Backbone:
């Protein structure tokens, strides 16, 4: 396949380059391609003539998005429109990486792909705008991930390990739950979905619902450290500019319905990542 990847310098973008390594890949980082520049996007994708476009580029700084909604919508919404238009012009299958933040987190059960979206934050609204742009193209796939961690870039596993090195006690919220998603596992599933030319919306996460408090404990345990060093707190005790969904658990209903294997329990890739990082 000829594959064009946007956001190739990000957590999942880096891993996408690895899983598509046997294909003809054009990997565009932010430095290579500004997705808010419509002409540049069309020129780059037209030149590559891809069979597949995987759109991983996004502004994911959740709290920064809250203070600059215009920029968030321009990058995550309008930028996605440019990529969608260019993919359609090339006749390429398009995959868009989205997020659990499109939901409000008030549902008592895990979210399935067809549940009503209702983002609480600017970031979530801007990513949902991107979903709407992609939905207009009939050869498109939306892959929602949550709590992404991996070898590349900033993420909570690295943050927790750093805090454990510099602090005796750690404090993490116990009233926000979700499914951690490890970037290499997510990229592998994206490769499979793209190879099958799947369309529609799929939730792709590792298994095992935990709170951030429980996840921090698991990271310390995986590193051979004492998990009781982590103290539970409430979201109210650690206010942030952007509201977070209390329930970010994404049920992988579409994968189940398609008879595709789910990603492993998060402890497996967590142990693998912590061993690599330490």
Residues:
């Amino acid at each position: 396949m000829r594959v064009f990847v946007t956001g190739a310098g990000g957590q999942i973008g880096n891993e996408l380059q690895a899983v598509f390594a046997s294909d003809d890949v054009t990997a565009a980082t932010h430095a290579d391609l500004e997705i808010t520049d419509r002409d540049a996007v069309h020129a780059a994708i037209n030149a590559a003539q891809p069979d597949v476009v995987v759109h991983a580029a996004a502004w994911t700084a959740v709290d920064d998005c809250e203070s600059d909604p215009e920029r968030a919508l321009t990058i995550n919404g309008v930028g996605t429109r440019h990529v969608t238009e260019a993919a359609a012009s090339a006749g390429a299958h398009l995959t868009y990486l989205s997020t659990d933040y499109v939901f409000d987190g008030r549902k008592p059960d895990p979210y399935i792909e067809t549940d009503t979206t209702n983002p609480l934050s600017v970031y979530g609204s801007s990513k949902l705008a991107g979903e709407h742009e992609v939905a207009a193209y009939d050869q498109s796939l939306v892959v929602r991930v949550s709590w992404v961690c991996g070898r590349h870039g900033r993420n909570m596993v690295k943050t927790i390990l750093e805090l454990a090195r510099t602090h005796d006690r750690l404090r993490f919220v116990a009233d926000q739950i979700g499914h951690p998603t490890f970037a290499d596992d997510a990229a592998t599933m994206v490769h499979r979905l793209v190879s099958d030319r799947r369309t529609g919306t799929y939730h792709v996460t590792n298994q095992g619902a935990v709170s951030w408090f429980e996840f921090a404990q698991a990271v310390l345990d995986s590193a051979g450290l004492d998990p009781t060093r982590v103290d539970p707190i409430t979201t109210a005790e650690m206010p942030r500019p952007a509201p977070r969904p209390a329930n970010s658990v994404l049920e992988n209903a579409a994968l189940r319905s398609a008879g595709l294997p789910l990603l492993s329990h998060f402890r497996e890739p967590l142990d693998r990542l912590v061993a690599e990082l330490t």
